[in-house]
Amino acid sequence: QVQLVESGGGVVQPGRSLRLSCAASGFNFRNYNMHWVRQAPGKGLEWVTFISFDGSNSYFADSVKGRFTISRDNSRNTVSLQMSSLRGEDTAVYHCAREAPSSRGFDMWGQGTMVTVSS
Amino acid sequence: DIQMTQSPFSLSAAVGDRVTITCQASQDINNNLNWYQQKPGKAPTLLIYAASNLEIGVPSRFSGGGSGTDFSFTISSLQPEDFATYYCQQYDNFRVTFGPGTKVDVK
Question: Which portions of chain B are predicted below pLDDT 70?
């Protein structure tokens, strides 16, 4: 089955860390750039970060730069988002998304995992 | 960073109506513009890529146009399943920005 499945969300106190994972199946994961996109409750979509197909390049939104890191394991078909120094404004559903090589659109999304930053 | 604006913020329409949403970039993005549909509690789905190309499996009532800084998205005849929020998204050198979204609801 062709899908992306996120895990690792939960409730975390401000200033603490959390690691999200996205497991890919049903396609050749190592060929695809991957992204994380988040959506705060009742708000719009916010791009968070990108990692290239081979893990050699990554970029971050200014709102998370220096606090979040992204990595991937092409042998396990997973991409991970390590979040540290979490803030209330990081509360959101976090989706991983696949970038289509030809169109550069995000043609596959996971259902998301909820992260709540609260004391 | 490139900023994206969309208008209107929301609109009310009836089944069969023609609906048009506009999206503007703060600088020239060529045709690096995609459109997504999102329904409540669901992940977004890609409808249009590179400004005017219909994603495989997307009905032909959806269309997109524009280049540079000004883009449009049209639903030629609104169907019941089209009530949703629509987002434009630009992609410039691996940095991505979404527009604020346009909610299309029932008149």
Answer: none
Q: Judging by beta carbons within 10 Å of its beta carbon (0-12, 13-18, 19+), is residue A81 exposed, middle or buried?
A: buried
Read off the pLDDT of each residue in A94-105 and give the average, rounded to a whole number.
92
Give the per-residue pLDDT at B93. 74
Nearest to B87 among A44, A61, A112 (CB): A44
Chain A CB within 8 Å of residue B58 CB:
no
Q: How far is A96 from chain B (nearest CA, A)?
A: 10
Q: What is the DSSP letter of A88?
A: G
- Residue A31's φ and ψ, nearest 5 degrees, are -90, -5
Report which of B20, B29, B34, B9 is spatially closest to residue B82, judged by C-alpha positions: B20
Rounded-to-10 torsion of CA A49, A29, B91, A86: -10
Q: What is the DSSP letter of A14?
A: T
Inter-residue contact A96 to A111 (CB < 8 Å): no
pLDDT in the model for residue B3:
95
